[in-house]
Amino acid sequence: AQSVTQLDSQVPVFEEAPVELRCNYSSSVSVYLFWYVQYPNQGLQLLLKYLSGSTLVKGINGFEAEFNKSQTSFHLRKPSVHISDTAEYFCAVSDGRTALIFGKGTTLSVSS
Amino acid sequence: NAGVTQTPKFRILKIGQSMTLQCAQDMNHNYMYWYRQDPGMGLKLIYYSVGAGITDKGEVPNGYNVSRSTTEDFPLRLELAAPSQTSVYFCASSYPGTMNTEAFFGQGTRLTVV
To answer: In a mutagenesis test of the B interface, which of A3, A31, A98 is the best target, namely the one with the most B β-carbons within 10 Å?
Structure first.
């Protein structure tokens, strides 16, 4: 079975500052990893995914994440955030055959 | 493509009432899922289906039922609504084992049981 831990429930940052949202996972098999974003009163939208290959994955809206197998981590980063990045971010894991398992989410609040 | 469509968007139920949350996808995905989202708890899997006629329980199935008679539709049934079922419900679909293995989500149904 897989599990996901998002290490920060809330991350406040100022506009144009860099941000990192941390995600650790556990699994006994190879996994696929995902980051989703949820804007207020909306569904979840895929930011990026790691399936295989390069451990640095680039997604939409300038976000990127790095898969670290030895650390079992998949942290999400953005070098300069905007007010519009304010949202809830979910890390998720799957073994490719079963449903996505989600973390509890990290609320990113960007202020000016 | 419409993607994943959920209806209704909002609903208020009285304790003990029943209702069906509808979910349809037009991407020919064989896997479909129902999640519930509660504040600070992330998304919990209620039921999932790997194809027409096949369903299985997720992490929090009590109080819910599902059916999958077609590839496109995956309705979620609440038989006797309870306040603990107040939540936001998301339907999703995917095609595991491929490069499109990520789940695509509907816009959600916000349910309040009073």
So the answer is: A98
**Amino acid, single-letter form, for residue B57:** K
- List chain A residues with pLDDT less than 50: none
Phi/psi region, residue B59 (left: phi>0; alpha: psi -120 to 50; beta: rest), is alpha
Nearest to A32 among B35, B45, B101 (CB): B101
HSE of B59, CA atoms in CB hemisphere, 13 A: 17
> B101, A98: Cβ pair inside 8 Å?
no
Closest CA to A67 of A44, A51, A45, A90: A51
- The pLDDT-based confidence of B19 (bands split at 50, 70, 90) is very high
Query: What was the pLDDT predicted at A30?
Result: 82
> What is the per-residue pLDDT across B20-76, written as a single tens digit (0 to 9) for each?
999 999 999 999 999 999 988 899 999 999 899 999 999 999 999 999 999 999 999
Report the run of H or E that residue A100 belongs to, with start and end. Answer: none
Cα–Cα nearest to B98, from A96, A45, A56, A59 = A96
A94 contacts on B by Cβ (under 8 Å) = 96, 101
The single-letter code of the amino acid at A84 is S
